[in-house]
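User: As part of a screening pipeline, I want to sanity-check one entry by hand. Below is the sequence and the SMILES for nicotinamide-adenine-dinucleotide. Please return the complex as structure tokens so I can compare it with the automated output.
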Amino acid sequence: MKFVVTGGAGFIGSRIVKSLLNQGDSVKVVDNLHTGKMENLDGIINEIEFVKADIRNFEEMKENIKDVDGIFHEAALTVVQESFTKQDEYNDVNVIGAENIFKIAQENNIKVVFASSSSIYGDATKIPIKENFPKNPINPYGITKLKDEILAEKYSKMNLDVIGLRYFNVFGIGQTGSYAGVITKFINRLKEQKQLQINGDGEQIRDFIFVDDIADANISAMKSKIKKGFFNIGTGLGTTIKHLADILIEISGEKISMIHKNPLEGDIKFSQADISLAEKSFNWKFQTSLNEGLKKIYPEF
Ligand SMILES: NC(=O)c1ccc[n+]([C@@H]2O[C@H](COP(=O)([O-])OP(=O)(O)OC[C@H]3O[C@@H](n4cnc5c(N)ncnc54)[C@H](O)[C@@H]3O)[C@@H](O)[C@H]2O)c1
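Assistant: Here is the complex for your manual check:
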């Protein structure tokens, strides 16, 4: 089968591209290289078609997205802090860009699987978070993702097959933006033999999922019979930031301690997915535990 991956030179998109190639599919990457890097496609560039193009440009997208079986839409601006100061740009790329993709897909009868985010839930009062929990994004980035879901619903009513995957905290080599959060910071500190700095009490809960499992979830959703809906993609397991620090210190083998700093303003307290809907619907389950994933990536930093 042939697929387009928007944002295919990015952290997650490039893993989707690699997994598709492993399954024998053909891939066209559409990316403007804003945060994406050609080096993410090292070793496979001769096996794919790469087009440098911007999802905000409807005509350019129309030209590039045809005669394919599906679109993985990953392209977006993803830096939460930046989304406060560049709200128009975030809206243009994340919302207008997404609508361009949905519109072209709808006109050409192409299935779309797109990257939504757990950030649409905001600060959940209960965990694990189910898909029908209230949506209260607390930053402009999260709002753009919620707007994408509303658009997806609109186009789904116009017969577009479109699935939104609400990724929780994705980790792996090559993370960018604000998602290159706590794991990247902790590993860098450990490599510099510096104390790990924990914001607040360290009891914040996160659901960390390895990037290869995110790629699998995308492909499972695309190749499933499911035509619409929004699905949490995480491990379903919560880890406190303090426990994450303990695991990484152990993996490093270093004698490094932790210090607590003031809590971060606007830091979400609990984020942990209920993933039963995705498991049931796409017959998908994550394969790599947090421990295994961290052991894999630690030496590569
Ligand atoms: N990493 C996470 O933990 C996480 C969590 C939830 C959701 N997401 C979503 O997953 C998707 C991929 O994120 P990522 O972590 O791989 O980030 P990334 O920055 O590595 O990838 C985004 C890609 O989109 C491209 N892009 C940006 N603007 C573009 C434009 N106007 N036209 C064409 N391409 C453009 C970038 O060059 C980059 O290759 C995003 O939609 C993001 O919002 C990521």
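Points to compare against the pipeline: Residues 2-171+211-234+272-286 form a domain with the Rossmann fold fold (CATH 3.40.50.720). The longest strand covers residues 111-117.
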